[in-house]
Amino acid sequence: MKWAAMKQAALNRSALGRDQSGGVLVEVSILLPMIITVIFGSVDLLYALYQWNAAAKAVEVGARIAAVSDPIAAGLNGLTNSVAMSLNAAGQPLAMPAFTVSCNGETATCTCAGTCTSLAANPYDAVAMNRLVFGRGSTDCGDATSYYATGMCDVLPSIKAANVIVVYQQSGLGYAGRPGGPQPTIVVSLQNMKFQFFFLSYLLGASVPMPPMTTTITAEDLCSGGGRGSCGS
After folding, report:
1. Considering all CA atoms of the chain, what is the largest pairwise distance in Å, rounded to the nearest integer?
2. Does residue 205 come out as left (phi exceeding 0), alpha (psi in the -120 to 50 range) or beta?
3. Are 58 and 191 in contact (CB under 8 A)?
4. Does residue 79 contact residue 116 with C-beta atoms inside 8 Å?
5. What is the DSSP code (8-state) at residue 125?
6. Which alpha helices (DSSP H) does the chain contain, by range?
């Protein structure tokens, strides 16, 4: 023990024992990875907030298009006419029936709960869904030249038709025989959306799901043809 203490004392008195020139390098090697992680993490966090905000705006755009376009459930805009041409047992026109039609882009199907007498045999209309996703007169993202032509994926490019759910629900508005079709409440929402990161995906090892985004609007004229006569009857 005495010999070891003497060797340590000699080392402390030597130049090697007093040399601290590499201390900064050691500190930097410890702190630099932490600093880089914080900087890159901040970039990804801000990008995630942008995606969240863009997704909220995208469903608003999709709902607005859905309110004035042919419904994804083909034939739904002819429901008021089919009801007007039907009579009850007393010979009086039937009231507008209650219905809820859900169209899922992932399964490319529309299902009806209630009375949907005018729906086609396979009511899912992919063209109508693409109108919401890509915008009016477009089949791609990022080519919108005005707000009128903007689709959901022009706002957030990661949105696909498979991410969109549209629900049409009888609101109590409108009347049998209304030329513009029924006036349902339309709910547009996103499903299975995930945040995209530049750097954190390598650290997290898994994608982070985006919270659901939903917007509700009342339909106006379920017709994309620019004239009532061009809509389905």
Report:
1. 117
2. left
3. no
4. yes
5. -
6. 2-13, 15-18, 23-67, 79-84, 126-134, 152-155, 200-204
| DSSP 8-class letter at 230 | G
Three-class DSSP category at 117: coil
- Delimit the domains of the chain by residue range: 35-223
Map tokens 């061009």 to a residue.
230
Q: What is the CA radius of gyration of the chain?
A: 30
**Beta strand pairing call for 164-169 and 99-104:** antiparallel
CA distances for 103 relative to 138, 161, 169, angstroms: 21, 11, 11
Which tokens hold the place of 161? Answer: 């038709």
What pLDDT tens digit does each residue of the chain (233 aa) get? 566 666 565 555 555 455 566 666 777 778 878 888 788 778 888 998 999 999 999 999 999 999 999 999 998 888 877 776 665 555 555 667 788 999 999 999 999 988 887 888 889 999 999 999 999 988 899 888 888 889 999 999 999 999 999 999 988 777 777 777 788 999 999 999 998 887 777 666 667 889 889 999 998 888 776 544 445 44
- Exposed/middle/buried for 20, CB within 10 Å: 0-12, 13-18, 19+? exposed
